[in-house]
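Recall from the previous chapter that SMILES is a line notation for molecules. Here it describes zinc ion.
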Amino acid sequence: MGLSEAVKWKMENISKQLRKPTSRKQQIFVFRRDRWLWRWCKRPVIFAPAMIYLKQELADSGYGELAYWRPAFNRRGAPLLDELAAAVDHIKALTMGGTNDVENLTTACNKCNTRKNNCDPRKWENEHPFKPIRSKFGEPQVWDGFSSLFLYMAKRHASSFTATEKDWLKALQAK
Ligand SMILES: [Zn+2]
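With both inputs in hand, we obtain:
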């Protein structure tokens, strides 16, 4: 391994550590604080796990296979989540010295988040200045990203909950 390769390997390892995922509780805190809205593209976001049960209930009621949810949010399998699934994003990228503190975290839509991750953070920041939203009718005050729908359906599906879903439920029930 040459010197530049060693440096590259080290940098990759550091960035892997930095990219440690935020906890579900922390993510819910950020989504709620931001009222499930994403500032850059102005779109409301949705809590993806709610779609699992919406899809399940409709399938049980005879509506067949619906593209409401897939483990991977792609256009073919889950077009709404491909665009709007709620994600947590770093305002200042970790590679540019940003931290994992909630002040540096923001709600993002899946589409922007994917684009941003594939983009040089400096370039993205220049092209997408962080601005307050101005909208003719004002911002929604009670949009919840379907998180209440998840809580509502959780009651009926509690027995089939996975560990991940239990964890989401716990995060959503925490005040
Ligand atoms: Zn977006």
